[in-house]
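The records we work with from here on pair a chain with its fold. Each token is a code from a learned vocabulary of local backbone shapes. A record is reproduced here so that you can trace the correspondence yourselves:

_____
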Amino acid sequence: ARPGAILESNCKGIRGTNEALKYKDIQLKLVRPAGGAAPLLVMKLRIVLDKGRRKRGEKTLTLYENCVQPVMGPIVYFLALAFVDNAFHPELIQAGLSVRRLHSFACPSGTIDFGFREEILNTPVFRSSSGGLYGKQTSGSRASSANTLGRWFARLGQRAELPHPITPYCLRREVATSLTDAGVSQPQLLQILGHLKIDTYLRHYQSTEVRVKVQATFLGTISKANMIKEIGRLCIRDDSNLPRSLTLEQRIQVLRDPEIQRLEQRRRELKTKCQDDNADSALRHAEYTAIGKQLQSMKRVAEKKLFQQILWDYHATADRKHMLA
């Protein structure tokens, strides 16, 4: 789902409405399979806020517990939020429901429905937080926004020193690519991604990397699928020698551009003239502001172009043996 399906969307007409995924949209069950198999947590999400769902109706997304690596599944994180909110029904708490006893409840029917308190059903699951005198304070009713999620992703990318900014849609596109590699049919792909036409996926989501070993297909030999997948992931593998940003000398090089220097000189002249109190001072101040914005744009474009050239030169000459060590 898109970020706006579980968080407050940034779209016009929705921003500020506090519409987000709420506890009433979630069903959490403990299923005991026949034959003595280990019990499994299953969570169903009622998606009504996804793009176009307000007109086409809701859809249900079913998530299963990751028994091998629980922390890699979303159910564990939802449970953490639910216990902090004291969201579960009092009868379950009185019966001994806790993090350690989730899988040990006895139920003759084989399925347990973990219900929530009536007064919390209309509360957003993911809520905004703000700093205060006593540290971070989580709102009791205000939903977190998709903009906030985008800022968190950007900070994570900066801390990891990734060469390109990351957004929540990076995960969405990776899921789409993985589903395609797994052989998911087009109708199922459209249903999962929430698209009406396959053209949207082909235009914005389909990977530009060819992940099929054409030679093996033509000759009828075994395809080295794992090797092809690993090569496709080389673009995101961390390279310790990869340039991360412009150096101070390179930024100074940008400032030596003749056009930038000419505008800087003109801006200094206007700053001096704006100190004079006369009829033209307002016009000079407006020109001074306009030149400032133009300079910011020119510097940004020049720095981006220079950094792209540096990356291009690096990839053309770099020795990547240290990445495979």
